[in-house]
Amino acid sequence: MEFRWTTDVHSKIYEDALEIRKDVFIHEQNVPPHLEVDELESKTIHVVGYKNQQPVATARLYEKFPQTFKVQRVAVRKETRKSGIGNQLLDEIFRYAKKQGGKKLILDSQDHAIPFYEKNRYIVEGEGFLDAGIPHHFMYRIID
After folding, report:
1. What pLDDT does 82 receive?
2. Are 107 and 70 in contact (CB under 8 A)?
3. Whole-prediction pTM value?
4. How far apart are the C-alpha atoms of 33 and 71, rounded to whole Å?
5. What Cα–Cα distance (Å) separates residue 91 from each residue in 1, 30, 33, 101, 117?
6. CATH of range 2-142; options 3.40.50.300, 3.30.1490.20, 1.10.10.1800, 3.40.630.30
7. Torsion (CA) 46, 24, 104, 44 in degrees, nearest 10
8. Rg of the chain over CA atoms, in angstroms?
9. d(CA 64, CA 62)
10. Which whole-number Å values give the CA distances from 76 to 6, 21, 23, 127, in the listed order?
11. Domain boundaries, the chain
């Protein structure tokens, strides 16, 4: 698996990220397009995982608070799920955030994905909430 990072919303990497996100969130989960692509696109760093030169996983990240990075838009193509790619993506995000001096990762997990994040050392905190009509919970991971 090769990971590529970009902040350039005009790059091929960003286009690949959007393609994956549209497939997963808009087509599979029926998230409205205006909610999926938002005002944070140019303020976040985007990562795409490539397997055999094909984009298969993505996420975006930004420093929401000092030393606290928010992970968003985590998506893995349907045909490559359950193969460990999501775990590799989270490992890559962890490495990046740690290298940047991060002390904590935070995210809003869809409820069905909570076990996946828990296996990757994220902890649920607080009450559930709806985002784009989908049940979510806040989760965090301390960077050790």
Report:
1. 87
2. yes
3. 0.94
4. 19
5. 12, 28, 28, 15, 11
6. 3.40.630.30
7. 30
8. 14
9. 6
10. 18, 8, 9, 26
11. 2-142
Mean pLDDT of each 10-residue bin along the chain, 144 residues long: 97 98 95 91 97 97 96 96 95 97 97 97 96 94 95
Kindly state the tokens that stand for 50.
Answer: 């490539």
Q: Is the dihedral of CA 72, 119, 16, 27 positive or negative?
A: negative
Scanning the chain, the segments in alpha helix (DSSP H) are 12-21, 33-36, 85-99, 114-119
Q: Which two tokens stand for residue 43?
A: 């303020």
DSSP string computed for 82-98? TTTHHHHHHHHHHHHHH
* Residue 10 near residue 56 (C-beta atoms within 8 A): no
